[in-house]
User: Fold these one by one.
Assistant:
Number 1:
Amino acid sequence: MLRRRINLLFGGDEKRVDSRTIYVGHRPCPATEAFIPPKFCDNRIVSSKYTIWNFLPKNLFEQFRRIANFYFLIIFLVQVIVDTPTSPVTSGLPLFFVITVTAIKQGYEDWLRHKADYEVNKYPVIVLEDGRSIRKESEKIKVGDIVEVVEDETFPCDLILLQSTRDDDTCFVTTASLDGESNHKTHYTVPDTEKDLQSLNATIECEQPQPDLYKFVGRMHIYKTDQEPAVRSLGPENLLLKGATLKNTKKIYGVAVYTGMETKMALNYQGKSQKRSAVEKSINAFLLVYLCILISKAVVCTTLKYVWQSQDGQDEPWYNEKTQKEKDTYVYLKMFTDFLSFMVLFNFIIPVSMYVTVEMQKFLGSFFITWDKDFFDPEIQEGALVNTSDLNEELGQVEYVFTDKTGTLTQNNMEYIECCIDGFQYRNSDSMSELDGFCVTDGPVSKLQQKAGRDKEELFLRALCLCHTVQVKEAGPDEIDSDQVDGLVSELSQPDEQRGFIASSPDEVALVKGAMKHGFTFLGLENKSMKIRNRENNVELYDLLHVLNFDPVRRRMSVIVRSKSGETLLFCKGADSSIFPRVRQEEVDRIRMHVERNATEGYRTLCVAYKQLSPEEFAVADAGLRDARLALQDREEKLMAVYNQVETSMSLIGATAVEDRLQEEAAETMEALQGAGMKVWVLTGDKMETAKSTCYACRLFQRGTELLELTVRTLEDGGRKREERLHELLLDYHKKAVQDAPPVKAGVTRSWSTANQEYGFIVDGATLSLVMNPSPDTNSSRYKSLFLQICQNCTAVLCCRMAPLQKAQIVKMVKNSKGSPITLSIGDGANDVSMILEAHVGIGIKGKEGRQAVRNSDYAIPKLKHLKKLLLAHGHLYYVRIAHLVQYFFYKNLCFILPQFLYQFFCGYSQQPLYDAAYLTMYNICFTSMPILAFSLLEQHIAIEYLLDNATLYREIAKNAMLKWGPFLYWTVLGIFQGLLFFFGVKYLFSNPALQDNGQVFGNWSYGTIVFTVLVFTVTLKLALDTRHWTWINHFVIWGSLAFYVFFSFFWGGIIWPFLKQQRLYFVFANMLSSVSAWLVIILLILLSLLPDILLMVFRKPRGPHARQLSEGSLLQTARSLPSPRCPTSI
Amino acid sequence: MASSYSAKEEDGQRAGAPGPAGNANSGKKPDNTAFKQQRLPAWQPILTAGTVLPAFFIIGLIFIPIGIGLFVTSNNIKEFEIDYTGTDSWSPCYNCAQNYSWNSSTPCRCTLPFTLEQPFESNVFMYYGLSNFYQNHRRYVKSRDDSQLNGDLSSLKYPSKECEPYRLNENKPIAPCGAIANSMFNDTLELYYIDPNGTQTLIPLMKKGIAWWTDKHVKFRNPGGSNANLTAVFQVSTKPVNWRNPVYELDSDPENNGFINEDFIVWMRTAALPTFRKLYRIIQKKNNMTPTLPRGNYTLEVVYNYPVNSFEGRKRMILSTISWMGGKNPFLGIAYITVGSVCFFLGVVLLFIHHKYGNRNNSSDIPN
């Protein structure tokens, strides 16, 4: 009590306290003498970042935190402060443009957020205060208020459900807007709260807000005037989350526990860590190179300037005297400002516009993924979702694919196949197999077939009917409409036989339906008692005492029920590995064979066990469970301990087999990925045999594949210590797969010939943890690298029995291995989130296991089969596009600035710009930006269909091939070559500047304009040469840019601009065009600059439709020589 | 709290508002438009040896004749160049160059005899050339005030800062201000033809049409309109330090005086390279019968006003005829011939390679 008071005293400083106390309805509770209303934040949602007042400074500050913007700001400031060759406008204008556009965009987004916030915050809600219902604005809700919510409204804050209009003290909600799960979830009122909320006097003690949607721990103390305060435990099932919607329930009352920014929804709306793509790293590397070029250019020029000036009469000839200020400047300061001036003069080599264009390309480019109708799934009426556009090109670089099995490779659409009771197999009756099944109506019908005893059968079926958390879909006449609206599969046409079931896991529904086929129907849960109808059409009632929930660590769940006859029974179902150790061994042997056979056939198997609890046993378990549930801290651990204690010495009654169909085109997709040089790793929590059969079915393993197993089973062979055996196996496999294998090249490219032995590697969770966390005493630090090497040399790796964190661990291990390969994780469930977040690219499948994977992914697709197009077509194209964009940008700025650099040698190193300021500014913004943007959005150097047909093409761009130093060098050399050509070509022309037929001469601005004209035409035509896919947009922007340049030059030179200090370009362009020599030199230089490219193009391998026809024949051949998919089971 | 709440907005890529907005775009089938499906009709050019080879030959076939034409044209242009810097003691201008002083009131004259081996037909253009003169130095290039030169009266009184240190002289604004104007070339060149019988005839030199038309008529304007009294208008200003005469006494012809003096305009168009030439005068063709400049002996009379020794510059006088491609410049012709030949040669080589390569291709196709 004392501690609580201390907590209350420090209630203002919430961070220091790990739980909060809420007074329901702000009524002081009798237990505390002094009622100090604790301070919590109000229910205002602030998702906006800025206010009108702080928008400008805050936004600018954030924008200049980006290193590129900051660099350009510095350049701009240098231009303002130091006397530099180009006016500050040349770099200020683009920077201003970029900053303004970004600010406007962010401002607009923030305005939208303000609007949304306003809408949410001003939403009227009803709050119970002093017995009256008062309408309030949502933002005024305080923690402790009792809030009324009616059907189809969303909860305004996180509420603890106190009262519902439903009889069974439940309410239904959908959390579609939180996690995308549209099914109804049941939430329960706090038990034993009084019906009259006005007289309720209670406090709630709960943890401080935390973002996990599915976790909530709390305790409610209910004070009654004449009794000891009652304590009720609160769990997530009592908590109604802000953002969820009330369904099928007229009205509820709840007390606000978390408000405003502390609600779970608000806490969850946090950015994931930013993933950076490999291309971005390349850009940064290139930037560094260019920065070095820039600095060395400036240094060279500065040095030469002072060398040159030291000659007689060069520094200050009589015709060009310095100003007084220049004379007074200290020489070293002058050198420094000269250096800065050169930096400014050459700074265009690192253009602002590249960042803008790359960002725009990524942003706009990602729309093509959302727009792709091939990604549209008619079943869920959704297409692909792009959560981040930063990683588009990474899709073209994937080397490792980590895939989940259930729901990803398989459909997660479970169908009950068979069961095995006490060692006897029961095939589904309507499968018409020779094994006859149960007779649905007539009781046991074993004529010749051996059957388990009827008792056992019924026990097993009751177990199936009871041991689950399935809800029966309510089919009351008033609810039919809403059901259909919800789009759930309701099979109401045959109300008895085909009932609708809702469950968190499809396995459970399959099992309940399976039991129904065998005559035991689950009718529903009412008032904590489960109703089932047995074969004799009698309704049996069982009191549901406890549910020992399923969790992936235990891999099992149990229920404790009490039958009408007073027996207390525990039914448990779970994975064989978690059940077998907990049952009597002699029973195991009878069933194990069936389980393993089912598993190899690719079925998911579950074992069912039961245990009769004596009243004493139950009392112990009951107390333990209640205690653990009430625990505020470490509740999970405590519950787990009790669960493990209860679920022991059970007897095994049978096993079930449920089929999980492969996803559409799963095998084709996997084959394509492997053909594209990707290594596919299957990471699953499922058991080895099932996973293995799925791998065979997906053709990840082929008949010729030699499987290297590193599992608990192989480790226990030979009866030695695990560590020793592990060491031995690892060395053995390493020798096989790594040392004896032909050189790395063959390992990477999977050839279809049988000459190369292919290896598949299987490891399970337990062994993996041995490898990853070896005990310190063994000399096993090498395990990890050995393991990794083996894995990297195998065509497919299967990791089964994985905990979610282990999945992430594996991804991390591969990600950080040598060469840091690009990894992709694909999964559909909450258990895949960790690996989705860990991998370079995370892909979520909009499957049946909720939306958590989708929410945390970078891209979400409806089906696995879409992965093929996403990677092979979109990824490939995006990579090629952006790689070309980056290289082209560096190239075009190199040959833009190089003539300006060379010009310094002929103008006394005086930082005289070669081009006019307008050209300097507009070059990257207007003249050359649109064609490359259009190219980088539309280019398809290879047709999409062709990319999909020939997965091997993906290998050509593997390992960042287009942004390696080789191609970079090519582009750089090309840029240098063209820059030299432009400058010296025009220089030789200007050896006699009398270029007009009237004998008049051209000056320095004509020189610059000719160079610039050649430059603009060359870089644009170079892009035109690279374009393989000319849509009308390409035509428009390429020719339009050139036309615009000509038009602009005429315009710019055609008017005496009053705001310009110097009319440098007045009629320069027009005069240039009147000179035949200028025309001739422009044509000559453009052609000569493009000659290397044209030559290369001839020598390069032809591609496109031409190549398509050529290789179609060979394609057919490979198809024929493909080993046909042979797997031990056919599904 | 708010900042951590929306940390993702860093890049502003995606508003990502939670709640119903997140699902707004789903549930809608993407439009099946060619653009959105990346299926815009497209022309897919394939540059193969087959398509490029003819291009090489065509380029070769076009460029070589052009080059030859240019080369011949350039060769037919007559050009005569004479250096009159006077650095060597035997040079007639040696004395003028050596004894140069800014203050001397009497102009120094020197006479250079020369011989034209060939007659110059049609119009002959007379250039002066300077070497090692950095007209393209940044400090120099920007040292002008174009609005003053455009006739702006306020700029006449208050010249631009860029003109420093040639902006004010004795607190009076300089017109035209700036280093370029101040260093205007002021040698006077005259040409005499010496008849075989020994008589000297002054060759008439035309000083109109040496500057760009647009410069003369639009960019450069005298303050106060075309008919104003220049002397009065320029009274507020003073002459550039190095000039002997104020700007309104550059020429007696009012159409060629003040800022619109063509010599001045030509000088104000800064040269691209430190060695340059500028058009000085035009010698017009008299009639069809006699060449403009017949072969024979000439003298160049120089009024030596312009010092270049201090920065080791050179001064030249150039006589040149002009063709459609401008002055004499063999570069273009040679370049065109070279590029044309290279293309042609490449075409041949490629044809050879393609022939072999193509054969190999065919042979591998046969088994299919």
Note: The mean pLDDT of chain B is 84.
Number 2:
Amino acid sequence: MATVEEEKAGMVLLDFWVSPFGQRCRIALAEKGLQYEYREEDLVNSKSELLLRSNPVHKKIPVLLHHGRPVCESLVILDYLDEAFPDTPQLLPAPAYARARARFWADYVDKKVYECGSRLWKLKGELQAQARAEMVEILGTLEAELGEKDWFGGDSFGLVDVALAPFTAWFYSYEKYGEFSVDKVCPTLAAWARRCGERDSVAKHLTPPEKVYAFIDVLKKKYGVE
Amino acid sequence: MAGGGDELKLLGMFASPFALRVKLALSFKGLSFEYVEEDLRNKSELLVVANPVHRKVPVLIHNGLPVCESMVIVQYLDEAFPGAGAPFLPSDPYDRAVARFWASYIDEKLFSAWVALFAAKTEEEKAEGTKQTLAAAETLEGALRECSKGKPFFGGDAIGYVDVALGGFAAYVHAFEEVHGLRQFDAARTPLLAAWLARFVELDSAKAVMPDVGRLVERGKMMQAQAAAATAATAAAKAS
């Protein structure tokens, strides 16, 4: 347990083990070589006083506390880490236009991937088929954006890479529920996913795909899905 | 005035609060631009090519290069035109994070509550939509108190990032009241927001680009009538 002093100094990340949004922050912190205290929130039973106090609006993780001040929303946290620690490897490139493109694609990942994935395992029949078609389209769109590049960020692992990387652990589940193969549907993106997995920052913080799949079973029970 | 050789073209739609955000941002920065009104039922080749992913407005085309998503565009304007007035985002990283958080809140919670209210068909849905709308306004009132610290705007003395994000809805809020009979920023419930709104729409740079509220009301009433007709038609089809 951190003392009040420890809480105020340095960085604390309020998070949940399997959250891809939390993992974005863990990956970014690792890429930047920044020290922080990780705190697991019990989202199933009871959220901590600190979480409720730090994110009263949404009561969600991740929350990054820096010198006791909370930063909420994973993409806002990623921007904050670049700006508060300008001497660390930057997630965003320097030129304004390239930054705008990166922000656009990070926003695309945010709007599309998790929500569509949720429909894939929550729904049945026609609605599930629709979710499957949409997921295939989303992955295809991302693959087209990646193109010939090693990373979405070009030569360096950037904002969009960090935003999307945690979802690679969910590909296995999307494949099982959607009955499609990521390797077949978007081979270049699949190769990117493998490259991500080879990075220390990603390998250390991603949930093994089978555990994500098992977690979805827990979510299904919670939502009363067969 | 835009720097020599800078060509700015904005693809928008008169009723789009998101396109209005960009018009406001350009106006506040004193940047001249060419405006293209899109018919969203019949999208132009230019729009489809410039925003193939979403095919939505606003799109800002700067010297031929497209930038999409309203708040991405607003940040881009700060970064690409550093000489055009004070930036919308503050300089301190923590203050920037707070501004980004509230802009995100406006999109995720405030706007979606209004959409839910607009789309409400049953009395139950309407009540729920109204509840969400009022709750979101109350939360935003707290945000304004926190961010403004007694000054006129979210950005303090001058228009900032959150002011632009919310400003896009300034005309929409007035139109919504006339069409749906609910005042989102009521002086009794949300005094700071009510004062902010009155102040915002009086700014010269805002007046220069605000759409005609009457036209928005007309459009809102037409959409409401169309939705009601569609609901009636569905009910009739089910009954027969």
Note: Chain B touches chain A through 21 residues (CB under 8 Å).
